[in-house]
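Entry type: protein chain
Record version: 2
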Amino acid sequence: MAMSGVVAVCEPAFWAGFDRRHPETFIDYFAQISEFEPTRAAEFGIRHYCWVAVNPKEAENKELTNEVLRQMPEFLEKPTCLGVGETGLHKSTPNEIESLQAHVEMAMKHDQLVLIHTPHLSDKAHGTKTVLEVLAGMDVNPDKIWIDHVEEQTIEPVLDAGYWAGMTLYPVTKCSPRRAVDILEKYPRERLLVNSSADWGPSDPFTLQESIVEFRRRGHSLQAAVEIYHNNPCRFLGQNPKWDIKPITISEE
């Protein structure tokens, strides 16, 4: 990753592959991603940042969620923690919605960025619509909210509502590198973010680089690529002063 030009990674709090049963398990996990992982990434010259939250897959346990939320603010103070995430919806249940509201309220109270997960394809449109309805009923700053995993059927309402829209690239599911470039060519790019992942299903962090190559292959300039794949993340994440990587301009003379 470092050799391909990656300068930083942002790791959201994620599902462990099983439902955790104790708040302390989350606290230890938050310590791992906010304290240990930055040292591991630094060995390769990569900055490591994180987000903290109860992932939507585990939000059905209200007692667990509330206790983790109670202890989360101390991690928001960590020098590598960028905000609250990923929160959001998995099956759009009442408990998930309540958890989403509580996470967003905490983020706004502490002036934090928010990373929101939208459901997989079977519930993508309905789940995204529900996320937008929840946010519309709250006092939020759209500039500080990144709604992730958008694709063709959900990107327009997210952008129309004033939020940042993230496309997560996968070899099979969610959004492919080529489809992402199709979207980049169709919609205004000022609030678009492109990211990749390494998680439980078939995934490949280098789908991000594949998308960049496809974008350039279609004739877009190097600076246009830099604006999307480097500068847009810097503009969104730079709202948190802990993120000190700045947008750049490339001279093609």
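Comment: The CA atoms of residues 90 and 119 lie 5 Å apart.
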